[in-house]
Design goal:
Length: 219
């Protein structure tokens, strides 16, 4: 494994510099490649939490045992491609308070893996999405050319849109934001040339997504 030390701003630093800081991150990459395997989040007291990136050939139960020996708080993420989308399945463990992980699925565009378009909590027992714990975002750029979550969507238990908060009138002035729900969704749609139908319900992926042969993603 190749180790890389970074400060909390993501800047590469030396081990000596890291050990002088209150908080720093230790990145592990597969030897001979740039594929990220693990990030340890460290404080003066030691490892605070760990993020682990699971690949197809690895045994998840073995990875859980390995991580549990290092920290009570860790998450395991596995990414797959589905057409133009990335599906990230995340299991967050907090062993000090709960034996069961918090499971979520998060959707990104492959060409924008920093800004999620959908995040959905999954029920541990049924494996089904908890629709009222789904969040979606639609993005555009502000007057400075910076990309931001311009419309944020939340949902009801039946998966129908509960609230869409449109920040485009003025991203910096909450009083100017506009609000829509399932019944007046067409009014929101009429404001934009983009097809907004994906955001009307809590469905995980757009209907046109290619789900026939999802592929394991490389980090």
């Amino acid at each position: 494994m190749k180790k890389v030390y970074k400060n909390i701003f993501g800047e590469v630093i030396s081990k000596a510099q890291a050990e002088k800081l209150d908080d720093y991150h230790l990145y592990y990459y597969e030897k001979g490649s740039e594929r990220l395997k693990e990030i340890e989040f460290l404080t003066e007291e030691g490892i605070y939490s760990i993020s682990y990136y699971l690949h197809g050939s690895e045994n998840e139960e073995q990875i859980i045992s390995y991580l549990a020996e290092k920290s009570d708080l860790f998450d395991i993420e596995k990414r797959e491609f589905a057409g133009e989308f990335i599906i990230a399945t995340n299991k967050m463990f907090s062993l000090a308070s709960d034996d069961e992980p918090l499971i979520s699925k998060t959707i990104f565009y492959q060409d924008d893996s920093e800004n999620f378009i959908c995040s959905q909590i999954i029920d541990n027992e049924t494996g089904e999405p908890v629709l009222e714990r789904t969040t979606k975002c639609w993005y555009t750029t502000d007057k400075h050319g910076e990309k931001y979550a311009a419309i944020e969507f939340s949902y009801q238990e039946d998966g129908k849109l509960e609230l869409a908060v449109d920040k485009t009138p003025d991203p910096e002035d909450e009083l100017k934001w506009e609000h829509y729900d399932y019944n007046n969704f067409q009014e929101l749609q009429d404001r934009f040339p983009t097809d907004m139908s994906y955001y009307k319900t809590a469905v995980l992926l757009p209907q046109y997504a290619d789900l026939e042969q999802p592929r394991i993603a490389s980090y």
